Amino acid sequence: MTLPQSSLFRAWLAVALLFVVGFLNYLDRNMLLTMRQSVVTAIPMTNAEFGFLTTIFLWVYGLLSPFAGFLADRFSRSRVIIVSLFVWSLVTWLTAHAKTYEQLLLARALMGISEACYIPAALALIADYHRGSTRSLATGIHLAGVMVGQGMGWIGGWFAERHGWSYPFYFFGIFGIVYSFVLLVLLRDAPRETIPGSAASATPGALEKVGFFAALKSLMSSGAFLMVVAAYGLLGIAGWGIVGWLPTYLQEHFKLTQGNAGLNATLYLNIASFTGAIVGGALADQWGKKNPRARILLPAIGLCIAAVGVFFLATTSSMTVIIAGIMTYGFFRVFTDTNMMPILAMITDPRYRATGFGILNMVACVIGGLSIYAGGALRDAHIDLSKLFLTMVGVILVCATIFFLIKPKPELVKPVEPAAV
Length: 421
Prior knowledge:
Elements: H1 5-30, H2 36-42, H3 47-74, H4 77-95, H5 101-116, H6 118-129, H7 135-151, H8 154-163, H9 167-186, H10 212-220, H11 223-254, H12 258-288, H13 294-315, H14 319-347, H15 353-380, H16 385-405
Helix pairs in contact: 1-6, 1-7, 1-9, 3-4, 3-5, 3-6, 3-15, 4-5, 4-6, 4-9, 6-7, 6-15, 7-12, 7-14, 11-12, 11-15, 11-16, 12-13, 12-14, 13-14, 13-16
């Protein structure tokens, strides 16, 4: 069947619009980390208090993610996205007005609430639009926008040095508020996908009423979903552990300055991840035309190769090999993120996809924080951080093994054309 040109346009317009939102989602949350000195000078606080600004965001964001995902399943996905963007952009703008530590802490908690609603809704909406051979690529392009936002966190420090710490919060807060009205005009829902033969399929595109506890029961009764939760939790441990302690590892092992260590740890990783998100999506879509398990197998293979990259960066004394290891890890590790929502679409009831991803987000954030603590405990015990990275090699390989064992539901892997809108 040849799709109407308007359907293809809307499907890719949604990806383009959400690319910008994904960029803002990660930029707004991360830029505070790059302006510590400016913020502490304006609002006196201890290092522990500054660190807690990120901790409170992470806790609120992670714990509310399942309910935030449910909102995207229960109501209009596009409206959840627009409200989320508007509220967190307003909070970003209000952050610029904070005069005390308590006000800043409250702003970070509110940002965690509002940002938690975005990712599950965005990925579910992309999956609604892209049902056939473009689902993983579309997800990967959106993830690339997230990578750009994450990689450009430095812009907060740059603005803070020249115009004061509040300036970037003013600027990007107003930008996000204006952009939310652009989305109000251009972003639309796609018809929801249903399991063929189910009662819900009798009214294609209808917004079915779903319950939170019914969603939890459905998801938790799926062995495949529980395997994905375990794998994503392990990946959260590895990801937070590697990204969180890599700058310190480079600084101590290669006698780099703090700035150079941070640059080497983030620049190469984000370049590789940006590329891997798009390549991983395209490869999964192409392979998926021949193998219905391609979107599950490609992340598993990618994780095996990513583990090799981590092994080399943990065991070498060559900076060149370190960079190669970082880029190998970043490029192949992100194959999993690119295909995570497409995997959920193959193993869960379509009504509960966003809720399912919210649960994954919660597990990754809460459990992943343990690896940051573990790294600190190792440092306190005077154990080399290379031991932490070698442990993460094993964690990644266990994660890959779980993915190899996941089996999709046959009724959910049939190729379907993108939704007509």
